[in-house]
Amino acid sequence: MTVTVPAHPEPVLRVSRLSKTYATRVVDSVDWQLAPGRVHALLGGNGSGKSTLLKMLAGVVPADPGGRIEAAGHRLASEHWTPQVAAGTLRFVHQDLALVDGLSIADNFGLARRYPRSRWGRIDGAGLARHVAAQLGRHGLDLDPQRPVASLRPTDRALVAIARALDGIGDDATTLVLDEPTASLPVDEVAHLFASIRTLRENGHSVVFVSHRLSEVAEIADDVTILRDGVVVGSGPIGQFPEERVVELIAGHPRATVAARSRPAAADDAPVVLDVRGVSAGPLRGVDVRVRRGEVLGVAGLMGSGRSSLLRALFGDLGDGVSARIDGHEVEIRTTGDAVAAGIALVPEDRARDGAYLDRPLWENLSAAVLSRYRRRGRLATPAERADAADAMRTFGVRAPSVDAPLGALSGGNQQKVVVARWLRAGPRVLLLDEPSQGVDAVARDEIHTLVRDAARAGAAVVVVSSDLDELEALSDRVIVLLAGRVARELSGPDVDRNVIIAAMHAPGVDP
Fold it and tell me: Which of 101, 161, 166, 484 has the most CB atoms in a 10 Å sphere around its CB?
């Protein structure tokens, strides 16, 4: 059912003088409103107050007294806005989706809405399955309710989470808050999600869209609001906010002072640092990789093409090992220890699981790859380690209260810079990066790109896997496109362009 939006509608959500104070004020007298039937992007750097604002809207973080929140006929002082009130007016889909992989789609709905019961008090599994099938159908999803969530494609997982969030609203329009819904989606999957968001908008629903990918914001949003240091620094129709202006508002200064925009452009006659032939591991089927000193090689491909598997194989973390030439020397890489000894570093896709010690202090995280520098008679020289960590914070632009702060207390962008800095301190010959700017804001993204370019200029051979094609275009000298575990195409020069990369990712030419 399509909901008709009046010509001059009242906002479906309005906040006035909304603030939150911890040790300092992190959200400061925010005025903001959401029009019905619109997609409104909420942007800001890490630490801008964006997440705290969303938590106040969800009622899980109490706001300071003196503000007001209005939604769906509720007008309350901000300190009286509770999760119960929020649940009746707003629906949230968080970045982690909160789906239980080991359960079916139907069971995930049942956990959220409570399982229906028969008149004898037993769980009515058949009734739940019928209800869930109807809800999925409303959102164009032809999925078996008994299918395990773990078997779903990334976009279907996101759409199931959206369908679950909207369960129970009937034909009424509502407000849906999507927090980083595309963070882990490859480019081809994003298009499917955006089609569903447009359908929601056409049916009168309002969407708050949070993302760090500015090209996606420009594609899907009608309006935008930008926060910096807890204050609204810009708000209005998306047409008034080109990407350069958005980045300037997020950063507080022009983008040109944040990062150079040119590629490193390695010399064609530079010596080859990494030469690997016939990599076959996981889905990979005989992939050759050759990278020169100072060159950035981008790796593109659809889900399942073998992008991340290639980096893991080169780092000795997948398959039976590879034979490589590093700076002209034959090396057998069968373990991650072999890779590190050969001068290969890997910044993994999931830093929280594979690359960061979140409960350990910053200085320990920064020195983890160079501990041998600090061993004195079998012990670690901790004062020197801490002093060098403070210098590294300044060198790599890590913003934190002190070297003693636990890594988990830092913003996502600063956590990622620490993981990158850890390996760069070791002076790697080969730097492998898997989704280096995933989940970080536009300013931190530029700063991480600067670190990658600096590593290339210092002589490293860099291999970057990214589902963000703007990132590949900005960083890469060459791009190889993987399809069904093989190199389908190699792009260089003017062909290192997001549109050419997209076409190559979807073109036939490699037998599965």
Answer: 161
